[in-house]
């Protein structure tokens, strides 16, 4: 048997703010989870997404420090249509989350935008552009 991809784990320095961000994007995160040091949800298709607070990470990796600089990964959320990309970007930035790249029509045929979650991780919003007539 070969290993099977199963979980994306992220460290967070503010569990409540992080979970609020991902709840706004539609993830079904249980109420009260923000008080836990480890939270995970199962996404459609079975992949799990998990967050550990800084103290939890340091419990098994005492030398861990939050990364700095630009994100090295991003999570991409498909929206229903290009207008939804704009709407979600506006809603999240108006709620105080960091917008990195405002929505644009990408040359690869998608409406695209990039935000950062509260820990600076890249979060992309995208939707296919209508085909040109």
TrEMBL record:
<dbReference type="InterPro" id="IPR029068">
    <property type="entry name" value="Glyas_Bleomycin-R_OHBP_Dase"/>
</dbReference>
<feature type="domain" description="VOC">
    <location>
        <begin position="4"/>
        <end position="128"/>
    </location>
</feature>
<dbReference type="Pfam" id="PF00903">
    <property type="entry name" value="Glyoxalase"/>
</dbReference>
<protein>
    <submittedName>
        <fullName>Glyoxalase</fullName>
    </submittedName>
</protein>
<dbReference type="InterPro" id="IPR037523">
    <property type="entry name" value="VOC_core"/>
</dbReference>
<dbReference type="InterPro" id="IPR004360">
    <property type="entry name" value="Glyas_Fos-R_dOase_dom"/>
</dbReference>
